Amino acid sequence: xxxxxxxxxxxxxxxxxxxxxxxxxxxxxxxxxxxxxxxxxxxxxxxxxxxxxxxxxxxxxxxxxxxxxxxxxxxxxxxxxxxxxxxxxxxxxxxxxxxxxxxxxxxxxxxxxxxxxxxxxxxxxxxxxxxxxxxxxxxxxxxxxxxxxxxxxxxxxxxxxxxxxxxx
Length: 168
Description:
The protein is mainly α. It is built from nine helices and no strands. α5 packs across α6 (101-117) and α6 (101-117) runs antiparallel to α7. It is globular. The model has no long low-confidence stretch (mean pLDDT 94).
């Protein structure tokens, strides 16, 4: 019942637009400040490796993620110095414009969980909660936005591709 409301209701699309704009602004400003103010993820990565998330008994909870940070992210910090600010900025733009909303929110959630796994709580729980609402709503979350035109265009293109494959 709630899922149907999120995915089909016009009032829900208005509420989702407000949530989308709020999260979009948050993502966009975070990314834009990193792009214009200089950004280096090395300190964050080193801190997350040195002080990983630990359980009540003191053992590392996400050892696999610490290994990822240590052996993949930190040695390739130059790549992450580009991916993080551009990713945040583009996620924000997608959400603000309502363009490819579900894709933008999916990648936003991937980044939220990445920060969370590294031990940064901050506003991530709130953003994850709101992000799942937007992701669950699907097309309705971007209906008051560019998705109103973009999604039908892609659906039409996909039908043409499927039809073309069948005739070939």
